[in-house]
Amino acid sequence: DVEFKKVADDVKKVKTQPTNEELLTLYGLYKQVLVGDVNTERPTVDPTGKAKWDAWQSRKGMSKDDAMATYITEANGIISKYGM
């Protein structure tokens, strides 16, 4: 949990904005860690909300530990790619 919180904070400090795809990957994993499986209706009007919901929904059934480990790996890759 400590490593997850640290990397979640650090990834916000990268020098260059990650791609939308990278951000959506992190978002889906982050929500899966904090909330678990998606528990809301898919937005109907907001395209950004739809993309975020879909990213989270794509992690359905993933355990908190698996989501956390994958988030840490993905976030560290983004930090390495863009620098802090």
Automatic annotation (TrEMBL):
InterPro entries recorded: Acyl-CoA-binding_prot_CS, Acyl-CoA-binding_protein, Acyl-CoA-binding_sf, FERM/acyl-CoA-bd_prot_sf
Gene Ontology biological process terms, A to Z: fatty acid metabolic process
Amino-acid biosynthesis is among the record's keywords: no
Gene Ontology molecular function: fatty-acyl-CoA binding
Keyword field: Lipid-binding
Claim: Lyase is one of the keywords in the record: no
Name of one Pfam family that matches: ACBP
Domain ACB residues, every copy: 1-84
Protein name: Acyl-CoA binding domain containing 7
Gene responsible for this protein: ACBD7
